[in-house]
Amino acid sequence: MSTTTIDPTIAMPPFPASWAMPPGPKLPPLLQVAQIARDPLGTAVRMHRRYGEPFTMRVPGFSPSLVFSSPELVKQVVTGKPNVFHAGLANRPLKAVLGRWSLLTLDRGPHLQQRKLLLPPFHGERLQAYGDLIRELAEREAASWPVGTPFRVAERMQALTLEVILDVVFGITDESRKDDLRRLLPPLVDSSRHVVFWGSIANRNLGPFRLRETFETRRDAVDALLYAEIADRRRVPSGELAARSDILSMLIEATHEDGTPMGDGELRDELMTLVMAGHETTATALTWAMDLLLRNPAVLGRMRANPDDEYVRATCQEILRIRPVVPFVGRVVTEPVRIGATEVPAGAGLIASIGLTHHREDVFPQPQVFRPERFVGESDVPSYGWLPFGGGVRRCIGASFAQFELETILRVLAQSPVRLAVRRPEPVRATGVTLVPGRGVKLVREMA
Ligand code: HEM
């Protein structure tokens, strides 16, 4: 098994205490996190108005971070040289769940090597072959919704996108193992959110809140299932494996540049990464989509009457603009850099605030208005004005698949006879690294 490819941990440079940081809120770091959790988009817009660009944020466990939002500066942050701009360092709270081989937590050469292994399975039409399956799963899901009783669509979308991951990424055929994962993965996702969002605080067991312990028990139970699946898959004859199109089968066949296959630990970490990065994000985008479509009947009507590709695609783009599921991406610089007019010392964090970029009046006029037409035909959105999937060598590896999945499922759900159970606007909250609908979007299905 290959071990030579794995990164020795990149040291975090000490942060220069004497640096005169750009202005920012003076609240203690924990209160800054609490404020963002309650109102992530509003807080970012207010801070930008008050302090300008960049402003400095403080988050517990991190060195101060500069927040950028104009397309040209955001571009510099996300496309900065990978040996200076480290996403893995910025993502390090995710290591507890994703592990040290995860694409999200690695940097430099080792990151590029893992990315080379993971890219081919996500390429081209391969995953589009799953279109019929995704459509079928979406139809079955919509048919199972109760008639006349309100239900939270967030939970239903989580279940739906988990089914997609179990088929497309894991390719699991053993029904009892699938059932175990259906039961064990959602509570693990829940626990990981606390550990990631609250960082070092969640790592202490605070009285009855045994967050860390609960998290570890859940993670270990899921790990046991993943290792069992990897062991079983390794026993499948190579010819049979090559005929399968799920991502795990392709990764088992893949080799590093030195010809060695991926080890069990690497496979486990990448499977966990793909579940964590691909399941809740897509489910949340679908949940926001239902909320936005049902509040904008003209858009929904146009999608229903004429599900032509361009308009459905534009609608999905606008959904990801107004409710960017991942509202920011971070990098930590290990050498001094200059972003625009700002000299940034080694050790500082840089945040590309996707949420703020998408809500800047100078990038998207009337940013609060949901208008898919912004993306129809010749679009005047500047480069890096729309970046729900981040950018550079860290751009979301599942971006095309996620867009395909969103469009496929929304075409089905747009036909469903549902209405919002609550007319009041859905609150936008931040948990973990995602922007979620605070009430989970309650719907009522009507008699067809
Ligand atoms: C609407 C759905 C999704 C959104 C909004 C989203 C967004 C993102 C963002 C913002 C990043 C960070 C990019 C950066 O640092 O510049 C990312 C990375 C990543 N995403 Fe997604 N994602 C989605 C779906 C998926 C899916 C379906 C998968 C796979 C099944 C996936 C796998 C990954 C992986 C592995 C990375 C790490 C890439 C790297 O560091 O090289 N994502 N995603």
Outline the structure in words.
By secondary structure, the protein is α+β, with helices and mostly antiparallel strands. It has a single domain (29-417, 424-445), classed as Cytochrome P450 (Cytochrome p450, Orthogonal Bundle), CATH 1.10.630. Helix content is 49%, strand content 10%. The chain has helices spanning 29-38, 40-51, 71-78, 87-90, 95-98, 108-122, 131-143, 153-170, 175-197, 211-234, 238-242, 247-253, 264-295, 297-305, 309-322, 354-358, 399-413; strands at 55-57, 65-68, 85-86, 151-152, 328-333, 337-339, 342-344, 349-353, 418-420, 428-431, 434-437, 442-445. Strands 1-2-8-5-3 form a five-stranded mixed β-sheet, sandwiched between helices. The chain has a three-stranded antiparallel β-sheet with strand order 4-12-9. Strands 6-7 form a two-stranded antiparallel ribbon. A hairpin with a 2-residue loop joins strand 6 and strand 7 (342-344). Helix 1 (29-38) crosses helix 2 and helix 8 (153-170) packs antiparallel against helix 13 (264-295). The longest helix has 32 residues, at 264-295. The chain binds protoporphyrin IX containing FE (HEM). The site of protoporphyrin IX containing FE (HEM) has 27 residues, from helix 13 and helix 17. This is Cytochrome P450.
